[in-house]
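Supplementary Data S3. Sequence and structure tokens for construct A.
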Amino acid sequence: MSVPGGVDDWRRLRPTTWSMCVLIFLVAFESFAVTTVMPTVSAALDGTALYAFAFAGPLATGVIGMVVAGSWSDRHGPRAPLAVAVTLFALGLVGAGLAPSMGVLVVGRLVQGLGGGAMTVALYVIVGRLYPAVLHPRVFAGFSAAWVLPALVGPALAGAVTQNVGWRWVFLGVAVLVLPVSLVLMPAVRRIGPPSTPAERPRRGRLAWAMLAAAAVLGLNLAVYVRLPWSVVVAAVTAAAAIAALRPLVPAGSLRAARGLPAVIATRGLVAGGFVGAEVYLPYLLTDRYGFSPTTAGLALTFAALAWAGTSWLQGRLGDRLTSHHAIVLGAALVVVAVGGVAVTAALHLAPAVAITCWTVGGGGMGLVYSRLTVLVLAYSAPGSQGTHTSALSIADSIGAALALALTGLAFTSVLGSDASPDLPFTASLLVALLFAVGALVAAPRVLTRQTGDETADAAASSALRT
């Protein structure tokens, strides 16, 4: 007899949960580590012009992986997509770790992104298919917790490895661990077959649209190599192409943040763009303008990640007292405050403590936003559409971040080397990121409709977060 509240299921699935959390841990460590060491990598490989591309590239190719993994998982289950995803992720890390030039490193990052995007969707589908709905928030809370330890040790450890062993081992070390962890997960995933309900029929040409979106984002990053004013023209055309290609990949109405699921998708893309677009320049700002070492610059990311995990846990304790609507709006507002605060710090060359404090506030905002958006997507999804909808969420996340990185990179390089203040490139980039954050705040109040069904979904999500 099952114990109420899914306790039996939770115990039975504990090894699977741990395996997934370790994979998330490794992805989190890689994220914090690469953000911390990329200024050093850029200097070592003479890759300033490709700095933003090294971050935006894997986000762009990740869209292709998400589309393939989403439809593949809905039709046949997540086992094969996960195996292919982990392999590509590891191969990309090896390529980046052995890269003799910034161009080769970017290619490795592109392969890594392809696998990482597919892995994210496959893990979400595993949660949706293998776990009872009452346990979904608990698993996602575990995913959030898996970011805590990397937040504590990741940036500092990456900085120490870079200073004492070499930045290449930041990539290679993660690659060595990813494959054996995935092998532990496979026996449980093998039990998941096609869904009992028919898979949602994907829109025709989704893969082609995904490839166009990725190509457009990558082309947008190459606008930095075109002289003004043509770089602005290239940026405008490629950005428009990326947005046009995004439209068939997400639920109808997402680009205008229509109420309900479309607004959830839009908010995720915009808040990711605002946060990631600013995050990659914070360590750069601290090392270049304030003389921080890679290790100490990474502490800013540590504080933000701890705040992220803390607010994720806190809202679970609050349950119905903090609705999804209020959590998402409050979180988006905190991200606006954070990005705006870092931009002001760069513009006025304020004390670095101001930027670090603001960024910690932004991490808290992301903790409020992300888990609620993920739970709402699963609440809106039938078993046959979980892969499609979670891939749409991840696609919006990646495209939003990739567009922000491309545009912030263009803003940075456009004023780099000019006679203006050396703080201006950072200020220009952060103001672009701020536009994305403000957009998220505008879309956030629309994540729920006024219809009873959506209010019920919100109540279910809030209640589940208490478990």
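Construct B, processed identically:
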Amino acid sequence: MSKAKGLEGKTVVLGVTGGIAAYKAADVASKLTQLGACVPTVMTSHATRFVAPLTFRALTGQRAETDLFAAEDRFEIGHIGLAERADLVLVAPATANVLAKTAAGIADDLLTTTVCATKAPVVFAPAMNPRMWENPITRRNVALLRELGYRFIDPEKGRMACGTEGWGRLASPQRIVDTVVELLCRKQDLAGLRVLVTAGPTREPLDPVRFLSNRSSGRMGCALGSAAAARGAMVTLVAGPLSLTPPPGVETVSVLTTAEMHEAVIHRADEQDILICAAAPCDFRATQVAEQKLKKGSPGADTILLAPTVDILRELGARKRSQVLIGFAAETENVLANAATKLREKNLDLNVVNDVTQPDAGFEVETNRVTLLSPDGRTESVDLMGKRELADVILDRALQIRQSRGQ
């Protein structure tokens, strides 16, 4: 299956500020260009200390501007020309300094004057030391900018270049690109529909400190929730423990165990138009949860008896009426055969199957390659792509199923 570029004819002005995360902006510029966007780059003087302007020119084919008074065209005032051309201005990374200057209305270089002059949406992807991100002045500036209509791709939690752990790491390049695509290519073909998505793992306790779980991060489910909301749906995300922040614009119901996920989903299922079960709930639970931490060598510690958990997808398939029901199958062997059995036994309208032994697909990565299985035996291979991009493919198929039923 070939991928449409999607951003042809769009101009994304990329602002790069001075921080170690500036090198990741090169990946963002490359990905946006590959999607068909025109990506002129504006760099602060500090940004050029981390990445050379030539890097962005080579990746985008566009001049990387650094000087407020050095417009390439003598009849064009640099920041005004960029501001008027932009369909969207993306600042990645955005330092505490550029956030503070924008919040205060300071326009003293090419980037801040472009941000000040544009009428296009402006998106900040902050990156800074966790103490700077948590500083009350930074929090105030971010809150003010949000109130004024500026958009944010919040930083992630992780290890900083300085060795500090915490919130402040630049969002992944794929997440940044997915957000740009969402903002510039929004279609409202799910307006008025109710969509429920499950995401992430569940945890089944063994004792007060240990549990059974799996490697699911919840990225695919969150991508589906974000994509459905962007297309106008009223979205409920039923999520186990996630390794990322739930997307904005959706109702998030947090659960822990498979039983809790079952209760949350079944309680809401009848009112939904589309149900997408992207979560990886545990298949087994301990028959008895120890009241105290199990110690090595203690009686019974070497044997844990397991029982099956409730099968959420099977129950949804048995009770569905007119809803579109989509499942996921994460397989390690006999991939298509196992997925076809699941499709049939659980009465699915579509099964999204992938081989999770592949390093660039499945759990804990930002990309996926899948095969879509239909009840009539049709299979459709979907090439490697970002999970946010794949989410739109899956939603397109859900709409096609509804249309085939005259809904």
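The longest helix spans residues 387-404. The chain is about 35% helix and 25% strand.
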